[in-house]
Amino acid sequence: MGEAIERAERGIIDADLGGGLIKQRVARPGQGRSGGFRMIVAYRAAGRAVFLYGFAKSDRDNIDDDELEALRTIGANWLAASADLVGQAIEDGNLKEIEHDDDEA
């Protein structure tokens, strides 16, 4: 997941789905990104990235329109959430924070 966000921070976004959502390709171990996994992420540059959904390219080609609309709503809520609300969600176990070390990029 970290690699996908690092690429987004460098402006490399595989697909902009609108409404603050992006789709990033993630490689399977030992393989490339094209046949690997897809991650749907609510993303605000240099601010917040929230993983919402992932799937293997071999399992399905894409998400449908209803799923996309639901993910846009969920993503917009998390991107607009206050730092206090996000912190509480992490504390309650509803979100998991993944630390990112800028020195590794």
**Mean pLDDT over all positions:** 90
Q: What value does the Rg take, in angstroms?
A: 14 Å
Amount of beta strand: 25-35%
Category by helix and strand content: alpha+beta
Q: Which residues form runs of ≥5 with pLDDT under 50?
A: none
The backbone outline, from C-alpha atoms, is globular
| Share of helix, binned | 25-40%
Count of helical stretches: 3
Number of strands: 4
Please outline what is shown here.
The protein contains three helices and four strands; from the N terminus they run αββββαα. With 105 residues, the chain is α+β, with helices and mostly antiparallel strands. It has one domain.
Can you characterise this structure?
It holds the Pfam family RelE. It comes from Pseudochelatococcus contaminans. This is Type II toxin-antitoxin system RelE/ParE family toxin. The chain has 105 residues and is α+β, with helices and mostly antiparallel strands. The protein contains three helices and four strands, in the order H-E-E-E-E-H-H. The chain has a four-stranded antiparallel beta sheet with strand order 1-2-3-4, sandwiched between helices. Strand 3 (37-44) and strand 4 form a beta hairpin. The longest helix has 16 residues, at 65-80. The model has no long low-confidence stretch (mean pLDDT 90).
